[in-house]
Amino acid sequence: MTHALQATNIQKTFSGAEPFQALRGISLTLAKGEFVSITGKSGCGKSTLLYILSTLDTAYQGTLHLCGEQVTGQSQDQLASFRSRHLGFVFQFHYLLPDFTCLENVMIPALRLGAKPIAEIEHDAMEKLRLLGVGEQATKLASKISGGQQQRVAIARALINDPAILMGDEPTGNLDSRNTGIVFDLFQGIVRDFGKTVLTVTHDPDFARRSDRVIEVVDGCVN
Amino acid sequence: MTKPFRMKIETQIALTFMRSRPKMTIVASLGVMFGIGMYIFMNSIIAGTNDYFEKVTLMSTPHLRIYQKVPRNDETILGQRLSDGSIPLVVNPQLVPTVTRIRDPYSLMDRLRRDPDLLAVSPQVSANLTVSKGSVEKNANLCGVDILEQDRMFDIASTLIAGSLRDQQQLTDGILIGAVLAQDLGVSVGDHLLLAASGHSSRSLRVTGIFRTTIKAVDEAKIYAHPEAVQQILQTDRSYVTELFVNVRDYDHLTKPMAQKLRERTGYSVETWEEANEQSLAGRVIRNILANAMIFTILLVAGFGIYNILNMTIYEKIKEIAILKATGFAGGHVVSIFLRQSLFIGLLGGVVGVLFGAGLSLGMSHVPIGVGGLSHLPITFRFQDYLLGFLFGTGTAFFAGLIPALKASRVDPVSIIRG
Ligand SMILES: Nc1ncnc2c1ncn2[C@@H]1O[C@H](COP(=O)(O)OP(=O)(O)OP(=O)(O)O)[C@@H](O)[C@H]1O
Ligand SMILES: [Mg+2]
Q: Model-level pTM?
């Protein structure tokens, strides 16, 4: 049985006038169907780690396997395709495309992947938006809704391609407890019912406690 | 939008980016529009000018002129008679007056007229002589021609300002004279003129028509008469013909090979209309170079405009590019989005530019000139100018977009998203 994620001795140093080692040899394994939270003080390296695990950042030492495939050393285009097929990502700051509607924002990664007909993609996107309580915002421009609503649209976008692994950098950071609960239940649902793997950074102790496992990062190391 | 994404995703994103910045899109398209419009206009006016000069040239020059060269002095004959070691020395060479005429012209013309590539063959009996009315005397270039055959070549009828070709054809002592010459002599249709060749006889002929070609050298010296009348003045036989004018079927392509063919077949010198008017061909070459330089500059400026605007767009959209790449768009997809954008700008500017070029050309073709035979700015509408203008314009837009698009594809998403 392959792991969903296997990181071995990940190190990251920001070069510059004063080189700074943000990650000091992190190894970590996630089984398929696990719901894992990452916690740690601000500046300890959580986001840095997540960018590497999500294949966006390729300037690191160590090796990374996702879904049984070694992604370390793959080309940018291969990684883009890999992300499209297997990964969903919710950024710390939500980053929607402001010129497009919420619905279009959710649809775009699926259209890029091109695995389903447009009508089906539109239907699924609408479904996800409704699930997250932002169905009524579907036809509004992404730049014309509140921060919490944007965050939920971003979560819908991350889920649209039914990714094997979903990563989030404080995906509930802007949400009230009711909506945080909705998102948590949604994540737990895809883990339990569809065997997906979820890895989220969170500052919410409640959220962390309710997940399967908590990983604490301290100064670029895993405790 | 109720029905999002019916087009390819890259197309849709490109269009949305363009729609979100309408002013930029319009300014970039305007650049292409001006480029293409000017390309079309410049080419139309150059083609018009070339056509005009060609028309004027062909109004007085036949496609081919068959004539006998005055034989030049030739030392080879002398060399043949001398033994080895002697040096031929010719002092004060003189031309022997020889008659430069076409021998047996009528059977030659019969042969030429059987050639399907030759449209018209007109024998010329020309002579330089003086023409006088009372005490006023002028030099003139008398051409003995079959006026109807000549009309087929030079459309003399359209230049007539008085009299008629029919009268000229019927009256054996009739002449057509240039408008300036008629004015200088103070004659009008019906008047008689005395034509005299030096050392030959003179004859009184009647004016049946006056023509104005706007070519001054022609209008102030040319006189058309019947060949027989000229032969009588020169006191020569009825087969005296100085040269043959020939028009061919396709004068753009056939004159050169036909000239070569006739040279070989007849043994006479054959001059093409291009050779007879080399200075106007030089003018054409210079006009083309000027136009190409201008067009190149215009397209270059339009290209820089698009390059700048796309660079700005990419700088503005760098966050969006990062998001797209993070959510699965590869470098090639990003290139595709921005190339589409520049292609759309090119197409938009292209369509409007073609209309602009057509409108500008049409408008300028009404600008009055009123010099020579030119009433308006000469403009020729050619489909190829519009097609090439469109292709060059969109091509320029496309290539101008290439560098910014490649730059966009190299955006590193983490460095943008990390903030
Ligand atoms: N581009 C960079 N160049 C240099 N150092 C950086 C850079 N980005 C981040 N760092 C440093 O790396 C460390 C880890 O940053 P990171 O963003 O991963 O923190 P974090 O754990 O996500 O914090 P937060 O909870 O506030 O989001 C920080 O000390 C930060 O100063
Ligand atoms: Mg962070």
A: 0.76
